[in-house]
Write a structure and sequence with these properties.
alpha/beta, 2-enoyl-CoA Hydratase, Chain A, domain 1, Lyase 2-enoyl-coa Hydratase, Chain  A, domain 2, six-stranded mixed β-sheet, four-stranded mixed β-sheet
């Protein structure tokens, strides 16, 4: 599919790089990008095993396009927000792992976007903020839910109430991003991890992602039941047979996603 605000690049058969592409506005999210993101996450190629989300040029995503929102009537504002929420929910529901490669500023909705990914690597120069209270609103795309899960409730309250900007080192120390490196090595490091994911059994990775996500919603006994049901389904797959055989034959497995 062709998108006006997203740039898609097939790194290989199983890894796709998605770049937010509005560089003149630091990749701010306007109504068109909301629609593009929503459409993209709902049409994932079944052969994909990992997706990398990054920003064009020097920013990851500066948040909502406030120029577009200036003097916007409430009906239109709510329609735009509904589309953004649908895009975030579709991202969360994406069956394959999504890694955020945070190459620059991730403010407001940009921070929410990266937190909706499965995990994030960041350039050491990246900056972050959950700054919506400075605009008279609150995070509206799961920011109040994802941030405390990442860095703890008390830290999330401090960051949200103040709206302060924080550094990549802060984000790493607080558990918001998983790894830091120089900006020129960011995509290389992310691709190393993406390739590690892509060579594993794709159905196993997808089921593991689902079970891990459910761990944040269910009591441990219910989560265990969900895990066991997923495990039992994998026993019926060709990849499970291939994985065990490859181990015993001391060779690399050839997973086909079946």
């Amino acid at each position: 599919m062709n998108f006006k605000t997203l740039q898609l690049e097939n790194y290989n058969q199983h890894i796709l790089i998605v770049t937010l592409n509005r560089p003149l506005l630091r990749n701010a999210i306007n109504s068109e990008m909301m629609s593009d993101l929503c459409d993209f996450w709902q049409t994932i190629n079944t052969e994909l095993r990992c997706i990398i989300l990054t920003g064009y040029d020097a920013a990851f995503c500066a948040g909502a396009d406030l120029k577009e929102r200036n003097n916007l009537d409430q009906v239109t504002w709510k329609k735009h927000r509904a589309k953004l929420i649908a895009a975030i929910q579709a991202l969360i529901a994406c069956p394959v792992p999504v890694i955020a490669a945070v190459n620059g500023a991730a403010f407001g909705g940009g921070l929410e976007l990266l937190m909706a990914c499965d995990f994030a690597y960041a350039a050491e120069t990246a900056l972050f903020a959950q700054s919506e209270v400075k605009l008279g609103i609150i995070p509206g795309a799961l920011g109040t839910q994802h941030l405390p899960r990442a860095c703890g409730l008390r830290r999330a309250k401090e960051l949200t109430f103040t709206g302060d900007t924080f550094t990549a080192e802060d984000a790493y120390q607080w558990g918001i991003v998983n790894y830091l490196c120089t900006a020129d090595r960011l995509m290389q490091e992310v691709l190393v991890t993406a390739n590690k994911i892509a060579v594993n059994a794709p159905l196993a990775v997808r089921f593991a992602k689902q079970a891990l996500n459910m761990s944040q919603q269910l009591a441990i006994t219910e989560g265990f039941s969900y895990e066991q049901a997923a495990y039992d389904k994998l026993l019926l797959t060709q990849d499970r047979v291939e994985g065990i055989q490859a181990f015993n034959e001391k060779r690399k497995p050839k997973f086909i996603g079946e």
